[in-house]
Each structure stands twice: as C-alpha cells, then as structure tokens.
Design brief:
Blueprint (H helix, E strand, L loop, with lengths): L18 H4 L8 H7 L5 H27 L11 E2 L2 H7 L8 E5 L2 E7 L5 E7 L5 H14 L13 E5 L2 E6 L2 E6 L2 E5 L6 H7 L8 H20 L5 E2 L8 E3 L5 E3 L6 E2 L3 H17 L9 H9 L7 E7 L6 E7 L16 E4 L24 H12 L9 H17 L2 H16 L3 H23 L6 H19 L9 H14 L4 H7 L6 E3 L4 H4 L24 H4 L6 H17 L14 H4 L1 H10 L16 H14 L10 H9 L29
Parallel strand pairs: 1-5, 14-16
Antiparallel strand pairs: 2-3, 3-4, 4-8, 5-8, 6-7, 9-12, 10-11, 13-14, 13-15
Helix pairs in contact: 5-8, 7-19, 7-23, 8-9, 12-13, 19-22
The structure holds adenosine-5'-triphosphate (ATP).
Length: 685
C-alpha cells in the first residue's frame, strides 16, 4: 500500500448521481417541433370520420331500440302461401267425401296431404254468390294471417289459401267465379264440440285435461286481445271453433267473424289494405283486386224474414233451437234444409223488421240499431205481451209441451210417427185407416183438453202471468239502460223466492237468453243436436255469432268488444265443466228442465250454494277447488253488464293463480252471501 502524501489534497468522494441524472432529460417539446416532424391530418378528414361514426351509431341504436320496443309476438308472421286450386284438389283426393272432416256454415273442411307430406285441413268455401261467405273468407284470411302462431300456440295456424277463378255454365252462358279455399294445419282430434259432447273422448274425462283446455283457450283469447296490434276480437268463441291437436291441446280456430279493434272510420280502409297485403302473397304479386272487396263491402242488406227451427235429435237428451234469419236483399236465400227429424216452422215474420245493416263487414256494427238490438235480447229474455216479444220463447215452450205430450200416451206417438212413416214407405191402406182412427182420437182428445185446459197448459198460464208482471215492471223502468237492471235482479229474485211463488220453469225462462243460433244455414253439428253454428251467420253483421254463446249486447246489435269474447268464454267454461250443451232439453224427467238452460242452471246453483252440482259426473280426478274457480269465473263472465265482466288478462291471472281467486258476483251469491272456500291460490312470489 503506498504511503500517504501529506501534501496531496484530501480525496473528496465524487457526488453520486442517480443513474437517471446521467442521461440528460429530453428537451421540453416545443410547439414547432411537432409541426415540423408528424404527418398532418386535414381537419375535413377528421370531421368526415366523426360524421360516419355518428351515422353508424345512430343506425345501430335505432335497430336495437326498435327490436326492444316491439315484442316478439308483434312481429308480423310470414304471409300465407297461395296455393293453386289443383294442388289442393290433388291433396284432398278431389275433395272426396271420405276426406271430409266436417261441415261449417260456409263450406266443408277436408283432410289433405300436401306434396311435401304435410297433413292439412282444407276449407272449401261454398261462397258462390254469397256475400257472407266471401266476407268470411276475406276476414278469416286477413285476421288469421296476422297472428304469429310461432309465438302463440293457442291458435290454429293458417297455412295458405287459394282463390283461383274458374268458369262455369249458367243458363247457356259461361260465367267466371272464384273458388275460395283456406288451408290450415290439421288438428287430429277435431273440434271440442265433437270430442267432448258427441264422441265423449275418454281423454277429456280427466279434470286435468279439461282445465288445461280452459287455460289454453283463455290464453289464446288473451293473446288476441293483448298481443295483437290492433287487438283482435274473435266474436265466435264456442266449442266447435276450438280444435284439438294430437295431444288434445286446444287451439282457437275460425276467424270468419273476428274483428280488429280499430276506430270505425279506419276499419274498412284497413281491411282493404290488409287484404291487399295478404293477397300480395309471399312473392309480392297482387292476386286479388280491390274491386272484389269493394263489392263485398257495398251490400246494403236488410233482413226480411226469420225462422225458428227446432231439431229433435234421435238422441232423446239433445235438442237444439235455432233462429234462422232469412233472405237477404239482393241475395238468394240459402236456408239450411232441415234434416230428418227437424221440424221447421216459420214464426215471427218481421221479427227483425227495421234492423237494417250498415254496409261493410266491420263498419258500424249495430250502429243505429241498438234499440232494436236491445229488443232482440229482451225478446229472448223476457217473454212479454209485446207484439213480437217472446215468440221464440213461446215457440220453445210449445215445443217443450209437445215433447211432454209425446212422452205421455203411446198412441200419440204411433199416430204421429209410426203410421206416418208407414205411409211414407208404402202407403198401405190399413195404415192409413189406422192413422185416420188415431187422428180422430186425437181430435176428440184435443176437444176434451180445450174444455179442461188447466192440467195441460199449466206452464203456459204460469208463464203468461209472469210475463205480464215483467212487462209491467219494465214499462215502469223504461228509459234505463238495459244492463242497469242487473243490480236489481238479485233482490227481486230473492223476494220472490222467499214468497215461494216461483216455479221451476220461471227461472228457466227468466234467463233464457242468447240460446239461439242466428244464421241461415245449418252445419253438421245441427244434425247432431248441437246449436248450429256460425256459418249460418246472419246476413247482418249486427246479428252475427252463435246465439247460445253470443254476448247480449252484441247479439242485440251492439258494438263488438273484447267483453263479448269474455261472455262467450263464460258459456264455454260452463260447457267444459258440465259436459253439457248450453241448451239441452230432454223430454223427461221433468227435473231435467231445471238443467236445460246451462247458464240459468249455473245461476240457480249459485243462489243455492251448490255450484259443484254443475260438474260433469263423468269427470275423473276432479280438483274441486279448480272446478269452483272455473264456475265462478264463468259467472263473472256472464254478467250482463260488459263493464262488470273481467278482462281476459284478469281471467288468465285467476286461472294461473297469479291473482286472487274471484268472489261470486253479488247477484249470484247465496243468501247470506258467502265466499267460496278457495284457499289463496295466489302464487307466493
Ligand atoms: N284445422 C282443422 N283440423 C281438423 N278438423 C278441422 C279443422 N278445421 C275444421 N275442422 C273440422 O271441420 C268442421 C267444420 O269447420 P268450420 O270451421 O268450417 O266450421 P265450424 O266452425 O264448425 O262452423 P261455422 O263455419 O259455422 O263456424 C269443424 O267442426 C271441425 O270438425
């Protein structure tokens, strides 16, 4: 180690700089620096970029927000396919009788198989010369194709249509006419009417299935009312318009009488527009012209006559009563030919006198006819001493009387049937003598009875007395809205009941309302003892629908509203729970009369607190609580005042247990009013 030099300066440690200090910091950027070294982006390019960005963002936003506001079920479904007539003819084996599924008021429905192998139901409209048939075709095509059956599984999908023209010979001249055909998805188990009331399918004897069907129909109608834009009112809810698929799941069919709820002045226009849209079909071609629609909408019709047809089916327990309206001005009448066993009697000429019809399928329904409409309702509801009033009831009562008579002495029966049949067969002398002999007996008997009227016509006299009372009461109340009387019905009934003055037949007649089918033609169900249905709709839009199911205000010429469907749903509910037709008269025993009118019977049972008596005895595994719920809902739906009826949404809520179970309307509650023993079915949330 070298010696330390005392003269050398002392060593001072070098200042230690952090390494960063070793690299000089970069000079502060000068403004000139940037300009001189980076490439220049012209401001107009930046602006263009920004603009493009905003436009793209706006487009995306609009698309997203539109998708968000339109629910999936409001997206319009693809238009129905247009078939050629020959394809459908081949599919159905030339519309052979073997393939016939059923008969509607305006044509037959055939089973068919398309070249693709798909099974279809083909409705061949018998619309030749019939405005009503053409209307139904266009109406059904227009409205049914608006329903997106991919999101609503409770409506029978319409697959397509055909409206090819063909020429035909008419009195040596050749004319052209359209064949109107509608094509639907095939529903293997046919109509609820047939399956429940005629075939009595074992599948429908399970309560669970019936309740499922009830829920499906309710949801289907709810869909029409709330998820279609504009809302659709079906206008003809009844068992023959409910079809069952392979699993007996229910779907609503037949939109021939349906209506879109648009303001009156828009209705016809939009009908035409929509029709054109549909007619454009998938390829955008125009197949039909507006001219035809024009002609459809032009007819200014008035009803001239009407008839009551009574059908006594071979089955003793079923009968049906039908009101047929008559000839339409300018259109040849197509009155259904009564089948065997049908008595046809013309009554009440001019019954609908003064009911004139606004032109158009949808427009102005019942406008200006509400008074006559109201009368129409009361004519059914209260037989009074008025000139026309009660003719139908009178007639029905006469018929019931004749049925009772038939039940009595055997000789009557022989005289009226066997002998007559024999004569029709061979006309043997012996039989003719026998008939004459019985006829003379009958004459004598009639004379005797005239002397001693009391026992035979007890019902008629009682009935007339009651009518006179009713008429008096109504006269006093004139000027009121008819449904305002609702509230007074119950106390009045109770008072009378307490006096014990009401016979069993009184109440039956009391609410004998809406149990007739209005129409011109009979359908297959007619022959099977059902109330004939819609095909035979009246030529007047104010008198459309099936009367057993029709809401009083609509049947009476009022405006069709959602509440009309609610009323019809109420009747359908009772039919489903009881397994009975709305009007089912058996000749005996007398006690059956109490149940003849289903709606009245249900009301009567409600008064006596025995609602469950209404339930079909064939039902297995009955859920009593659900059955009570259904009957209660039905009675709510059947209230005369449309405002009091629940909405379809509320009904679905009650059926699904999403809302509190309903209470019986006051007018139907037993005395003292008591709530039915529902547990709260409201789902715990
Ligand atoms: N899609 C279908 N699948 C299976 N059967 C059907 C189908 N559509 C109709 N039917 C059968 O054809 C019958 C007649 O149907 P259609 O709709 O023509 O008349 P309706 O509804 O019974 O009577 P209306 O025309 O008087 O309302 C039905 O009762 C049903 O049995």
């Amino acid at each position: 180690m070298p010696p330390e030099n005392p003269f050398s300066p002392p060593l001072t440690p070098l200042p230690v700089f952090p390494t960063t200090y070793l690299i000089p910091p970069p000079p502060p950027p000068s403004s000139n620096h940037h300009h001189s070294h980076s490439p220049l982006i012209p401001p107009f390019i930046a602006a263009a970029f920004a603009l493009t960005f905003f436009i793209v963002a706006a487009i995306i936003y609009r698309k997203v927000s539109r998708n968000r506001t339109v629910p999936a079920d409001l997206k319009s479904p693809p238009p129905p396919h247009k078939f050629t007539y020959s394809v459908l003819r081949r599919a159905t084996g030339s519309f052979t009788a073997a393939n016939r599924l059923g008969q509607g008021g305006f044509g037959s429905v055939y089973k068919g198989v398309l070249p693709s192998g798909q099974e279809v139901a083909v409705k061949l409209m018998d619309a030749s010369g019939s405005l009503q048939g053409e209307r139904e075709f266009h109406n059904e095509l227009t409205l049914a194709s608006r329903i997106d059956t991919t999101s609503c599984h409770y409506v029978v999908p319409i697959l397509g249509f055909s409206s090819d023209e063909h020429s035909y010979k008419h009195h040596c001249s050749s004319r052209r006419r359209r064949r109107l055909v509608l094509v639907y998805e095939y529903m293997r188990n046919g109509s609820l009417q047939d399956a429940l009331l005629d075939r009595k399918c074992p599948e429908l004897m399970q309560w669970r299935k019936r309740f499922d069907i009830i829920s499906s129909i309710a949801k289907g109608v709810e869909y029409l009312h709330y998820s279609c834009d504009p809302p659709i009112v079906h206008g003809d809810i009844k068992p023959s318009n409910i079809l069952l698929d392979y699993h007996f799941d229910a779907k609503i069919a037949d939109f021939g009488l349906a209506q879109s709820l648009i303001k009156d002045d828009q209705v016809v226009e939009s009908f035409i527009e929509d029709d054109e849209k549909v007619e454009k079909g998938a390829k955008g071609e125009v197949f039909e012209n507006v001219e035809e629609n024009g002609s459809i909408l032009e007819g200014n019709e008035s009803v001239v006559t009407d008839e009551v047809v009574i059908n006594v089916d071979q089955l003793p327990e079923s009968c049906c009563v039908r009101v047929l309206d008559g000839e339409v001005g300018g259109v040849s009448p197509e009155v259904g030919v009564p089948s065997e066993g049908i008595e046809k009697t013309s009554v009440s000429e001019g019954f609908f006198d003064g009911v004139s019809v606004d032109s158009g399928v949808l427009k102005g329904i019942g406008r200006g006819t509400s008074q006559s409409g109201r009368d129409w309702w009361w004519k059914q509801d209260n037989v009074n001493g008025g000139s026309d009033s009660g003719r139908i009831k009178d007639y029905v009562m006469e018929w019931i009387g004749s049925e009772i008579r038939k039940e009595r002495p055997k000789k009557d029966w022989i005289a009226t049937t066997s002998a007559a049949e024999d004569i029709a067969k061979g006309g043997q002398q012996k039989q003719r003598k026998k008939l004459e002999w019985w006829a003379s007996l009958d004459e004598e008997r009639t004379k005797r009875e005239k002397k001693n009227r009391k026992p035979r016509e007890w019902w008629k006299e009682e009935f007339c007395e009651e009518l006179a009372k009713k008429k008096k009461k109504r006269d006093l109340k004139s000027g009121e809205m008819w449904w305002q009387r609702d509230e007074e019905v119950a106390p009045e009934r109770k008072r009378r009941k307490s006096k014990g003055s009401r016979s069993s037949i009184d109440w039956w007649l009391d609410s004998f309302s809406g149990e007739f089918r209005i129409g011109r033609r009979s359908s297959q169900d007619f022959a099977s003892g059902d109330i004939p249905k819609s095909g035979g709709v009246s030529s007047t839009p104010s008198m459309r629908g099936t009367v057993c199911y029709i809401a009083p205000e609509y049947g009476g010429g009022g405006q069709l509203s959602e509440k009309c469907d609610v009323y019809s749903f109420g009747v359908l509910l009772l039919v489903l729970v009881s397994g009975r037709r709305p009007l089912q008269v058996t000749a005996s025993p007398m006690s059956e009369f109490e149940r003849a009118n289903l709606v009245s019977w249900a009301r009567q049972l409600a008064h006596s607190g025995k609602l469950l008596d209404l339930v079909d005895p064939n039902i297995q595994l009955l859920d009593r609580e659900q059955a009570l719920l259904c009957i209660t809902i039905a009675l709510l739906c059947l209230q005369r005042s449309p405002n009091k009826r629940p909405t379809m949404k509320e009904i679905v809520g009650m059926l699904c247990g999403d809302s509190e179970p309903p209470h019986l309307p006051f007018e139907f509650s037993p005395s003292p009013p008591s709530n039915f023993p529902f547990k709260s079915r409201k789902k715990a949330r």
